[in-house]
Design brief:
heterodimer, A: alpha/beta, Rossmann fold, two-stranded antiparallel sheet, 4 helices, B: alpha+beta, Mth169, Chain: A, 3-stranded antiparallel β-sheet, 3 strands
Chain lengths: ~230, ~80
């Protein structure tokens, strides 16, 4: 029997811009990528959800602050509370922090400049559904493109929740933190863009390691349910 | 009721925007020891009295207008709405 294709949703908000790249990358990595519109109160039947990058609601008030209250975000929160796999990328990371699904906040880059370049990252955790194809200590090259990417952890952040750190910190993030997970490990957010790095032609295919890990984990859940 | 909300970066939170503004003021010849940049939100709300309006706007701050991890807020009731 052919291995089943997991269904992974990608939420599109007004102002999302990386939703199509995320859909394309997931499909290229053998998932069934499902577009989810921001005003859907219920998610379709999904095995994982990606909250993509962009500038949802114009980044008004604070990045992610308004998207946090959209109907699809409420559905994503329920999905995560039930143990569902959720990955937030860039603006998606900001939305998940605003929603309280992930600890901390993302604020203006220390330099006040928008940064758009490849960065090197170190993988801290390889035991998560998002990093199964990586190994701890491994370095990845992924692009960043953001003006508000400086991560501020809460004072009581458990250091084991740090998943990725910058080797050369592009935004002033505290303790070089580039990606974190929730306590349960089923929700992760990161500022760099794995969906823009899934083919050597794009400069790096290291993003495929993270996204294919998610596809693997989502597929395992499908198999476990059969 | 008219209300004004002041949202400020919390003390101790690095405010690069404030630093940039402070240094620009320095270039203009002003002696600025510290500058912090926040935001002002003016609201008109339906409420029977100032206390009720304040309670309502504080709820808005807690839920949306400020992020308690990085920002503090102050609510000022500035008067009746124009009829």
């Amino acid at each position: 029997m052919a291995s089943p294709q997991p269904r992974i949703g990608v939420v599109t908000y007004p102002g999302s811009q990386d939703d199509r790249d995320a859909l394309w990358a997931l499909a290229a990595l053998d998932a069934e990528a499902v577009a989810v519109w921001h005003d859907e109160r219920e998610l379709p039947d999904l095995d994982a959800v990606v909250v993509p990058g962009g500038f949802s609601y114009g980044d008004y008030l604070r990045c992610g602050a308004i998207a946090r209250f959209s109907p699809a975000t409420a559905a994503v929160l329920e999905f995560a509370a039930a143990g569902g796999l959720v990955l937030g990328i860039c603006n998606g990371f900001q939305i998940l922090c605003e929603a309280g699904l992930l600890p901390g906040a993302l604020v203006r880059n220390e330099s006040l400049r928008f940064v758009c370049r490849d960065v090197r990252l170190t993988v801290e955790r390889d035991d998560l559904p998002f990093t199964g194809r990586c190994s701890a200590g491994q370095q990845l090259v992924l692009p960043v493109k953001h003006g508000d990417g400086r991560y501020l952890p809460p004072p009581d952040l458990d250091p084991t929740q740090v998943v990725l750190r910058y080797v050369d910190n592009p935004n002033g993030s505290v303790e070089d933190i580039a990606g974190v997970c929730n306590e349960a490990g089923n929700v992760m957010g990161l500022m760099p863009h794995p969906e823009h790095a899934v083919d050597p032609l794009l400069g790096s295919d290291d993003g495929a390691l993270l996204l294919a890990s998610l596809v693997d984990a989502a597929r395992d859940r499908v198999l476990a349910a059969i | 009721m008219k209300a004004t909300v002041l949202v400020r970066p919390k003390p101790g939170i690095l405010d690069p925007q404030g630093e940039a503004v402070g240094s620009a003021l320095g270039h203009l010849g002003f002696e600025v020891r510290d500058a912090r940049v926040g935001k002002v939100i003016d609201l008109e709300v339906e409420a029977t009295d100032a206390a009720a309006a304040k309670a309502q706007v504080e709820q808005m701050c807690e839920r949306l207008l400020a992020n308690p991890l990085i920002e503090s807020y102050e609510v000022e009731i500035v008067g009746e709405s124009a009829a």
